[in-house]
Amino acid sequence: MSLRRLAVLVFLMVGMSVVLKPAEAQTSNAACPALVEMALTQVGNNCADLGRNSACYGFNQLFARFNQAVDSNFFQKPSDRVALALLSSIQTAPLDLDLKQWGISVMNVQANVPDTLPGQAVTFLLLGDSEIENAVLPDAQTVPAVTVILQTGADLRSSALPDGAIIGKLAAGTVVDADAISQDGTALRLVLNEASGWVNREAVNPNPTLDRLPRISANSQSPMQSFYFRTRTGSVLECAQTPSVLIIQSPQNIKVNLTANGADIELGSLITLQVLPDGRTMQLTTLEGEAIINKGQPDEIRVPAGSTTTHCLSEAADLGIDGKANDQVIGDDCSWEQPRSATFMELEQGQTGQAIIDRLGLTQVEPPVPTVTPVVGEPTATVTAAPPPPTECPIGTNINHVVVSGENLFRISVRYKTSMGAIMAANGITNAERIYTGQNLVIPCGVDTGLPTVPQQPPTNEQPPGPPIIPGLDCTPFRATSPLDGLNYGMNTFYWDGLAAATGYRVNIYGIDEARGRLVRSFEQQGNITNLTADITIETAGYGFSFAWDVQALYNGAVLCTSARTTVPRGAPGGSTSVVIPTPVPVPTATMTVPPPPPTFTATWSCGTLTPNSFKVDYANAPVGTVSITINYAILTGGVVPGPITGPVPPDPGTVYFNSSGGGTVGSGTITANPSGTLLPLLPTTLTC
Q: Is residue 579 part of a domain?
């Protein structure tokens, strides 16, 4: 699993800035891209094949503190490595072009990733003026590892349990390190290159030091699974490619749990963590997958890809293990903000790290199954190699690429080693964030493959303006009113209850199935008009049948209130007719008359009059996009034909019949509109015909 491919990172920043004037995308300091190229190449050479529960000195300069006495030369230069169990904290240095300095540290954290997955660990990437401190308190009596010798041949199992799955066999005489012991002291965890497994303690040579290994249980936290972090932007950002940020990626298809500054986070994704320049706000941004904060709790917050949220931090205190009063946890006088769409710059910082991690090779695309074979001497683990990078785009040629779910223009440009600007120009794209699943793109291969920088931002310590303080502001009455049961494929008019203090409104559209909950489009309405007509098609909102929307009340662009989010189905192309409702002429008052919402889906059942012993269900106003309805019921007496009964839509309104031989009684009836899943109960509760 060599990381020396990082030399190709000269391409990773291609097209990272989306501006209309390409010349503005270059920084005036030519030393910046040269330093970035050198740093990223050296990280690849320095941190190749990093094992789990280890940290690597990636690029200068780092400052580390340890919980045990170490030699003065320990972990002092690039390529040095250290077990996380020995670390109290790591601090990476801010950018200094004159000294050719930009601190980068890579950590592989075990977290709760299964032991039997070789190469699978949570990757931490600490960049710039940042610091991370271990919050998992070590036992002063423990040791990081003990070398043992197999006295007999032994089964290597997936867990410490005697009946754990056998994943390999070890030969007598094998020399290997043990890094953990089971709670009852009967099994040892052995480190086998990138894999690990458990053997019975009686199979190794007696050694009392084994009792000082960390004891592992289902709820045990590995080093750095809980941590405190700090990031500082500094007063001058000379090169926007070099952010100060903590980037975390879990293995694909595996969810892991971490605790950051006291916040419990589950991620199956790529996220960034930062402390904002005010020093009192923690920010979490999701680039891929989803992060869940306080899962299963009343204050659970889900942060889908492309979204960000913040929480205030407490005053600094001495909470960690470095003995310094520099630790901040999430404060008690606020709560997590509802996730909003991340800005381009917020995503861009994470994408810098995303490109680095993609080249690191520490997180594989699919978890392979380890195969441990009998050997004499040192055991080995055979691991399925990651697929090589694509070579199907020769420089100077054009190819076609079909966008798949989860891709964005940046990652496509990195894959084909071309620039976002070149792809946009070849396809007439004016907004880099507006590509959709199934879109066919022309890729000009290898165009503009230098290492451009992102636009340099003017140095500032000013914070973006927050929402204005409006005495007596009450968001409770502010709500979305229509549509609540479905969207047309095409033009839709959105309605909401107004807010007197608002100077405008924003309607946000989220893709639930194809876009995995991400914001796909926003529309703004100025003034005190409380409705907005927008086109919701594949071209404007992407593919999919399930969407959600909310509305935000704005005051000079700042968000005052956000309504609850409503999930609705969208009709298929060529389905029901779209109706355009003209935008009303604004009137000089903050109180607007809201048109009534669309008719409500209704259904009743009764006895049929044309056929003896028959039942009928009458329905009307099925949700937009409905293609069929399904009737379910329980047979209480008689020979009623068993359900469910399905009928096509249209017609609407319509009637569905079902019969009984000699009469009968049914109950617990429901009607479901397909494909939206909208369900109504049928009254009365029981019906005899």
A: no
Other CB atoms within a 10 A radius of the CB of residue 379 amount to: 24
* Cβ proximity of 97 and 35 under 8 Å: yes
The residue among 576, 562, 582 whose CA lies nearest residue 649 is 576
Euclidean distance between CA atoms 534 and 625, whole angstroms:
17
CA-angle at 287, arms to 284 and 293, nearest 5°: 40
For 61-207, where are the E strands, in sequence order? Answer: 62-66, 81-83, 87-92, 104-109, 122-127, 130-134, 146-149, 154-157, 166-170, 175-182, 187-192, 195-200
Residues 456 and 206: their CA atoms lie apart, in Å, by 62
Same domain, 505 and 617: no
The residue assigned the tokens 């209309």 is 20
- Do residues 340 and 309 make contact, with C-beta atoms less than 8 angstroms apart? yes
Query: How many other C-beta atoms can be found within 10 angstroms of the C-beta atom of residue 390?
Result: 9
- Nearest CA to 2 out of 390, 379, 385 is that of 385
232/316 same-domain check: yes
> Of 485, 483, 484, which is closest to residue 678 (Cα–Cα)?
485
Q: Which residues pair with 124 in a beta bridge?
A: 107, 248
Q: Name, in order, each residue with C-beta under 8 angstroms of 457's C-beta and a sequence gap of 6 or more.
A: 237, 240, 345
CATH label of the domain that carries residue 559:
2.60.40.10
Domain region containing 502: 480-569
pTM as predicted: 0.49
Residues 260, 291 share a domain? yes
- Cis peptide bond upstream of 584, omega within 30: no
Tell me the residue type at 29: N
Say whether both 231 and 310 belong to one domain: yes
- pLDDT value at position 384? 33
Each residue of 102-157: pLDDT tens digit?
899 999 887 766 554 545 678 899 988 999 998 876 654 567 788 899 999 998 88
Mean pLDDT throughout 41-45? 76
| The residue type at 523 | F
Q: How far apart are CA 180 and CA 191, in angstroms?
A: 9
Could you give the CA distance from residue 468 to residue 597 in angstroms, rounded to a whole number? 31
